[in-house]
């Protein structure tokens, strides 16, 4: 199955290295819709809270709404891409994302913004789920793990640059201007997909059974023990990361007195950790069993989460919190690509979109549900964030152990 699909680019045939680089850039940019939509306005959350006369939990619900939309949208876009090909659902979704982002600029209340963020996330989900399905069209097993790790090099730039850009934009415009920038990004992604991406799922390999076939596929995936375990791993790991994402603006700015600009630098450093560890994962894939790389990622995240709880409960300062948060973030670079590759390995192209969607809906649904927990006790304590991160990190490790116990998982990770 590896590299049997047609080239996704309609230019003259480039050299193999160039073609791979182009694909990494384009698919990585499409996958970056989620961190761009979430992270760019993280430094603006306190200003948004004040401007819309709302509370920290309501402001965090704008994040939850976007993540919920990202989950819902993948359930729709994934099966559609199996039935109609990858290109059309992708273009429709990215165009709708640009429109929804523009409407967020004029949101008059936090309730309206929450609703628009739900639509924005649902539309942007097409880029995420289709990009992952395209990788599965072209690669499998260790090759897919290497490619997913390479995507993190591009996708990882979004959480590094987004909060930095967001913090700087707040110096020259109100928080609504950030959504105007996201509108421009949506337009650029639409043009990139329109001009640079061809179909990777030929008509003969598409799912033709309609809604019944889609539901059967979802049922089969849900009852597949290793797949369900890996899906839970992604969801709980993202809950760990997203609790940090949603809680850290208030904890680091309101409790530890960081400026929006300093916060964006700290956030960027942690994102560099994700990217760097992801690249190490890609280099080691094929030489080190994927399950060992995955277990190492869990060990790093759990160590950081436990350290964070200890520091917060003992009244430790900023210089104890920052290294712990770095470990929590950096370990995701080992968890994400290897979990995704193991979950999708060996699945036929006609169900790759549905499988990708099920991974995505679990990831974003669990992550979105966890986000408000970081602010449940108000903006004056970091204890809920620390405990939520630790709980999700430990449960993610348990979910991976559940997946790896099956004979099929052992076979998949042995190459």
UniProtKB/TrEMBL annotation:
Domain spans labelled Major facilitator superfamily (MFS) profile: 21-408
Membrane-related topology note: Multi-pass membrane protein
Assigned protein family: Belongs to the major facilitator superfamily. Bcr/CmlA family.
InterPro entries registered for this protein in UniProt: Efflux_drug-R_Bcr/CmlA, MFS, MFS_dom, MFS_trans_sf, Sugar_transporter_CS
Organism of origin: Actinomadura meridiana
Domain of life: Bacteria
Protein name: Multidrug effflux MFS transporter
Membrane-spanning ranges: 21-38, 58-77, 89-108, 114-135, 147-166, 172-197, 227-245, 265-285, 292-315, 321-344, 356-377, 383-404
Pfam families: MFS_1 (PF07690)
